[in-house]
Design a protein that fits this description.
The complex is a heterodimer of chains A (312) and B (259). Chain A is an alpha/beta fold and 312 residues long. Chain A has 14 helices and eight strands. Chain A has helices spanning 3-8, 18-21, 25-37, 56-59, 61-78, 89-104, 106-119, 134-141, 143-150, 192-199, 223-239, 250-267, 278-285, 302-308, and strands spanning 11-14, 41-44, 83-86, 130-133, 159-162, 203-204, 244-247, 274-277. Chain A has a four-stranded parallel β-sheet, sandwiched between helices. A four-stranded parallel β-sheet of chain A has the order 6-5-7-8. Chain B is extended, with a radius of gyration of 25 Å. Classes of the chains: A alpha/beta (312), B mainly alpha (259).
Chain lengths: 312, 259
């Protein structure tokens, strides 16, 4: 990892997104706390809006392009930032998708330009900012070695299944920096979370469903389908010997939590594995208190599980 | 056309006769099961163009039927009838009535993009699935799917205020789809969460439900987005020949002769 990248990511524009203001509050909290503990500077994007999530594109794809580009435009044109960090896979994916479309599709650029003009805003131009995920942020700004030096307590061999979901790696063309040789993230077998948690003292299990789909887009509109997809993930993690599943997306996280309960209630399938944000695990490993990283806000009782392992 | 993963013989077309003699040959019983032939006559030659006119369907013509999409598909693994490759084939052949046999499951695509990742021709099958769902609804072949209702509830709120608040979305979605808010799993989740009294989170969710989060100075964005969506939807209806139908019906109702 080049030092210039490490320097560049020390201070980034932070785009929490709607979920982190609501059900994903623990992810917001732990991300900010971990950033603080690592000496990284987060400046929240001013007066941000929803990126369009997985829904706006189904009403019209360019509505999503406009919504996502507005966030990047504020970071670039109003705040003078050159990196936007989004911990939510949905936000991260949508900003990357807007970036790609604006660079490659003249029609998208024209529509966004027209919408921004009507709204009285400066239209975003492709290339003005770099959008990164929280995983990339910590991996590049601190790195495994840096993390190892700051660990206090560590994860004591906690067996973790790392779950990345869909939107962190697919579709491949919107992530040109991935699959780009040594040190880069892989879209087929992502490993940034594995790397960070291993440095924090976790024992990562061999988990085949890293990028399987949790059915998040239809979590309420086709719940039985989502429950079946989530149950696959939970059972695969347990079969691999995992005590916890580490997540890096609020939709995946709440989907796993919700359908774990739903599988129990509707299908009579009980699973014991606990669901926890990777930033919560990093925070605990860095010596932060369980409350500081919001462990008490998780639905599955990860607090008790970590306590019984002597981790929290 | 190789369609390895799908049998085109439907159980209802398999005919076995207890007692049957054809030209003096006894063909009774299971050993001489007949397959009733299928005849497709009502091709819609414009079907591919109609799908291509809807967002997501633009690249359907690139497909060379390799089947990577179906092979990678998350939903296909749960329900083998969910078959993107086959539906793309039907659209390209114009076999509308065949496509309509699966009209009630096409909306179930979860947008995981595994198909788009696997596709060697950049067809973007995920987009095609969305275009197909839209087409089915626009043409009146299906009622609005729960997924479409959710997308509408969500996007209405984003366009209205710039941001969403999850509680409102869930309530509105359950109301529009006629579901009770008191689902057993939802109550159980609440119970588990409350055990550890996450006061900060509860205060925050409570505040958000009273004072809906919004983006400041959003009025002009709202207007611009509403105008754009209305224009696009009108364009789509025109592309499917739906506005002419409506205008024609209006002229008929008013007794105006057609030009």
């Amino acid at each position: 990892m080049s030092d210039s990248k490490a320097d560049k990511y020390r201070k980034v524009a932070y785009y929490p997104g709607c979920a982190l203001e609501g059900t994903g509050h623990a992810y917001d909290r732990s991300t900010r706390q971990v950033g603080k503990a690592l000496g990284l500077d987060l400046v929240e994007v001013r007066n941000w809006n929803c990126c369009g999530a997985m829904e706006a594109k189904n009403i019209d794809p360019k509505v999503q392009t406009y919504l996502s580009s507005r966030v990047m435009s504020i970071a670039a044109n109003e705040m003078g930032m050159d990196v936007v960090m989004a911990p939510c896979n949905g936000c991260y994916h949508n900003l990357k998708k807007a970036e790609y479309d604006l660079a490659h599709d003249a029609d998208s650029a024209q529509v966004v330009g027209r919408l921004a003009e009507k709204a009285g805003e400066t239209a975003y131009r492709a290339g003005q900012v770099e959008t990164i995920h929280a995983l990339e942020w910590i991996k590049s700004a601190i790195g495994e070695q840096g993390l190892r030096e700051r660990i206090r307590g560590g994860l004591k061999g906690l067996r973790v299944a790392n779950y990345y979901g869909c939107m962190y790696t697919r579709p491949r063309h919107i992530f040109p920096e991935k699959d780009a040789g040594p040190g880069s993230e892989s879209t087929a077998k992502p490993h940034f979370m594995d790397d960070l948690l291993a440095a924090a003292g976790a024992q990562n299990v061999e988990f085949a469903l890293k990028t399987a789909c949790c059915g998040g887009a239809h979590t309420l509109s086709d719940s039985d389908m989502s429950t079946r997809l989530v149950l696959n993930i939970l059972q695969a993690a347990e079969a691999a010997g995992a005590e916890v599943i580490a997540t890096e997306c609020p939709t995946c996280h709440s989907g796993l939590e919700m359908h774990q309960v739903r599988a129990e209630k509707r299908f009579g399938k009980k699973t014991q594995v606990k669901i926890v944000y990777f930033t919560q695990l990093l925070g605990i490993a860095l010596g932060l208190s369980p409350r500081k990283v919001g462990l008490h806000e998780n639905v599955s009782d990860v607090f008790a599980a970590l306590q019984s392992r002597g981790v929290a | 056309m190789p369609i390895h993963e799908k049998s085109l013989i439907r159980p209802e077309n398999l005919k076995t006769h207890e007692q049957l003699v054809v030209d003096g040959v006894d063909v009774s019983g299971h050993w001489s099961t007949f397959i009733q032939s299928r005849v497709v006559t009502d091709y819609n030659e414009a079907l591919q163009e109609e799908i291509a006119a809807l967002p997501g369907g633009e690249h359907i013509h690139r497909c060379w039927q390799c089947g990577s999409c179906t092979n990678a598909c998350t939903v296909n693994a749960v329900n083998p009838d969910f078959n993107p490759r086959y539906w793309i084939y039907l659209v390209r052949m114009g076999m509308e009535s065949e496509l309509l046999r699966d009209k009630d499951i096409i909306w179930q695509c979860v947008s995981c993009n595994k198909c788009t990742y696997a596709c060697p021709r950049d067809v973007v099958p995920e987009g095609v699935m969305k275009a197909l769902s839209h087409w089915l609804e626009l043409k009146g072949h299906t009622r609005k799917s729960p997924s479409m209702i959710f997308d509408e509830v969500f996007t209405e709120q984003v366009i209205q205020r710039g941001r969403i608040e999850e509680g409102r979305i869930i309530q509105r979605f359950f109301r529009r789809t006629g579901q009770a808010l008191g689902q057993d799993w939802l109550i159980e989740m609440g119970r588990r969460l409350l055990r550890r009294l996450p006061l900060g989170m509860l205060t925050r969710l409570g505040l958000a439900s009273v004072r809906a989060p919004r983006t400041h100075g959003w009025a002009r964005s709202r207007e611009a987005l509403r105008e754009y969506v209305a224009e696009e939807h009108a364009r789509q209806r025109r592309a499917l020949g739906l506005s002419e139908l409506i205008e024609g019906a209006q002229r008929d109702a008013a007794g105006i002769p057609h030009a």
